[in-house]
Ribosome maturation factor RimM
Amino acid sequence: MGDHDPGELLTVGKITGCYGIKGWVKVHSYTDPQENFLKYGGWVIRRREGPGPIDFDAGKRHGKGLVAHIRGVDDRTTAESYQGLEVAVPAGSLPALEEGDFYWHQLEGLEVWCGTDDGDVLLGTVDYLIETGANDVLVVKASARSIDERERLIPYLPGDVVRRVDLEAGRIEVDWFPDE
């Protein structure tokens, strides 16, 4: 589970519209900081008929997002055909993180356990994460073996709420009361 498959594709952003008339597009980047999107290379566009390569030969910060130029696209009409599509990169091309840091996609699907006086209790599995500005939040959905059917929003605060992330075991241990 630890090292991800280099062939696995991870979505890093979405093309939300056109910018100007010369093949530039607006990009909503899912990376933090946003500019990291431009550093990856090896981009893949997710189309209905399957993923295909796309290359950005220029890009910059613009307002709250990014604008980028698609190589070989020099008119607005062609650029418009990319609107609404997600952009991914091969997992293997992401830079290695510091010990104790994780990419969101590594946390999705992990079981969330909390220790109680009566032993460990399964709260559910991480469905996805949301960025709130202050900190990221784990959206934990009930699973077949979880204590109840509730969805929980648990702040992703390593060393505080999040005691341990164990990718090998597929679990996150949290300090969180089951009834919160």
